[in-house]
Amino acid sequence: MTIRKLFEPNSVAVVGASRDPKKLGHVIVKNLIEADFEGKIYPVNPETDEILDLKCYPSLDEAPKKTQLAVIVIPAKKVPSILKQCKENNVRNAIIISGGFSEFDEEGKELEEEVLEIAEEMGIRILGPNCQGINNTSNGLCATWPLVTKKGPLSIVTQSGTIAAALSHWAQEENIGIAKTAILGNKADIDEADIINYLAGDDETGVIALYLEGVEKGRKFLEAARKAAEEKPVVVLKGGKTELGAEAVKSHTQSYAGKYEIFESACRQEGIILVDSLTELYNVCKGIAKLPQPDGKNTIIITSSGGSGILAVDAIEDLDINLIDLPEQSIERLEENLPQECILKNPLDLTGSATAETFDESIKILARYKDVQNMVIIVGDPISGIADVLKERYERLPLIPVFIGMGKLGDEEKEKLIDSEIPVFSDPAIAMKVANSL
């Protein structure tokens, strides 16, 4: 069965809606309103007639018929009866935010099995339970938290609500934006492969970020990821790589983490990009989403910080990046236009006396040579006007900006780039991994 209406409903019932601002049932209704959800919102709570100026219904079966999505935020033991009301209302998709299922104890596991049996019998698709909902910025369906409304090409699929919240928040703060977010929870029914299949055909999704703990249906996941990767990049961070991590996974969502080496090998064969940390996941996806695609891997580093240049070079040892020599014809021009103290190698070290003008001259000269396919620009000092230089050159060249150690002035220059939707990085090593992923 399709899950399209999970992301694209014309109406949403929030079962367990609340007037108490501290409760999730209130937060979700509020976020739907503030995100300007394009459809109808039906709060469901038998103890009140109105929530946030919306008419409140005593039960789901008394809400308007053919409601397309139910968001359930009630105690776990009451969920089976709500699913039966979904059938009466012709609801075909439900998000179960509620916890207290298989992640909790054996009784909760039995309850989750009962919920799944009812859903299958009723023809209802379930996201969760024990999940943090979804977001679709194109129609304002922020049935999760925090409130994120900035539209962009990044779509997020995770088993962790906190990780989804972090990625979404960073993308909003840095003007990258998101397309879709889905937090899977216990994956009783809808799993990562189902969401990936949907996102593969979603025109608004440019890159898919995945945080996974356990993958119970490995063949199904790899098939979905392979097909998606043919259309758009798929970037995966796997939790539970170590024995201790695998134990933590089991206590979190009752997933089986499996052997990471097997998972890693299978993903690489299918063209899936693997990363090693949450910061790397975000930055690689940010780079893919917003940076120009270079014609190849021939890369030159231009830096005002020798130490940062060294860290960038160290990072490429296991990467598919070709750190080329400066083109012979460029060296004479660089000597004529740069201060004497500059070190004319790759990395091209402009030293601590670098200015916006010396960066500009270096970029202009090297951009003339077809062998130079990508440039990593590391700014390691407070340099006024550097953002203007990079904005002008960015329109025509593959540039990866790295700002490090620039203080307050650096923050101001960074904001100029962010306002222009140009991604900026703060770690030379991660910037090289981003370059490797383009």
TrEMBL record:
It catalyses: acetate + ATP + CoA = acetyl-CoA + ADP + phosphate. GO terms for molecular function: acetate-CoA ligase (ADP-forming) activity; ATP binding. Its EC number is 6.2.1.13. Pfam families: CoA_binding_2, Ligase_CoA_2, Succ_CoA_lig. Gene3D superfamilies: NAD(P)-binding Rossmann-like Domain, Succinyl-CoA synthetase domains. InterPro entries: Acyl-CoA_Synth/Transferase (IPR051538), CoA-bd (IPR003781), Ligase_CoA_dom (IPR043938), NAD(P)-bd_dom_sf (IPR036291), Succ_CoA_lig_flav_dom (IPR032875), Succinyl-CoA_synth-like (IPR016102). Residues 6-101 form the CoA-binding domain. Keywords: ATP-binding, Ligase, Nucleotide-binding. It is an enzyme of class 6 (ligase). It comes from the Archaea. PANTHER family: ACETATE--COA LIGASE [ADP-FORMING]. This is acetate--CoA ligase (ADP-forming). It comes from candidate division MSBL1 archaeon SCGC-AAA259I14.
